[in-house]
Amino acid sequence: MARSAISDHVAQAFGEQTALDEAGFRDMLAGLEGLYFPKDMFQFTEEELTEKTEQNFTDLFYAEAEKTYDTREQEFTPAITRELERVIMLRVVDEYWMDHIDAMDDLKQGIRLRAYANTDPVIAYKQESLTMFEEMISAIQSETVRRMFSVRIKTNEEVKRERVAKGMTENVGGDSTAPKKQPRKVTKIGRNDPCPCGSGKKFKNCDCAEYHS
């Protein structure tokens, strides 16, 4: 998928051109360096750029991307890398598939209007739905690759620091583990009822502090 993502990016940068100038080259690098390979890794003169084809750049960038990914895999371990690939792929597919379903619903709602433009709605729906599906697949591949190259695993030390910081935040203003004082349940007392304080007087005649504060 990485090669496909890089190839699409390079193809978009070239467009209908057969070669890139300095500005076009820098624009192309903006979406690649720092992700697939370090920044400022590639430097070419104007003459060298005119000799580089779309395929040359794709091969060059992909070779460095492979090295970057291999380094990350060794850092994470192959087992964790495979699990990351699985989780990220499932998450991206879920996100983009839900968006695709919403887009298809919108297409269904408006496709019948194509008849006013002398276009067969059925044919238009088939063509546009296929295009949307292909765009979704391409977007899933690009986003999956982007997340795999940018994902970062926290170290044990970072996790410990976050737990300590969270504990300090929770304890601001007092001990969060201290039992909270339960509010006293108050029952409405009639004026002629005996006062709950036990004085034997009617509530209206009693002056105890507990119930007449």
Walk me through the structure.
The chain is elongated. Helix 1 packs antiparallel against helix 2 (22-30), helix 1 (2-14) packs antiparallel against helix 4 and helix 5 (78-111) runs antiparallel to helix 6 (121-150). The chain is mostly helical and 213 residues long. The N and C termini lie far apart (75 Å). The chain has 2 domains: 1-76; 78-155, Helical scaffold and wing domains of SecA (Orthogonal Bundle), CATH 1.10.3060.10. The longest helix has 34 residues, at 78-111. The mean pLDDT is 84. Helix content is 61%, strand content 0%. It is built from 7 helices and no strands.
**And the CATH topology of the largest domain?**
Helical scaffold and wing domains of SecA
- Sheet-strand content, in percent, reads under 5%
The arrangement of helices and strands along the chain is HHHHHHH
Large-scale geometry? elongated
Rg (CA only): 34 Å
Coarse structural class = mainly alpha
Named at the architecture level, the CATH assignment of the largest domain is Orthogonal Bundle
The end-to-end distance, rounded to whole angstroms, is 75 Å
- Number of E-state strands: 0
What is the residue-mean pLDDT, rounded to a whole number?
A: 84
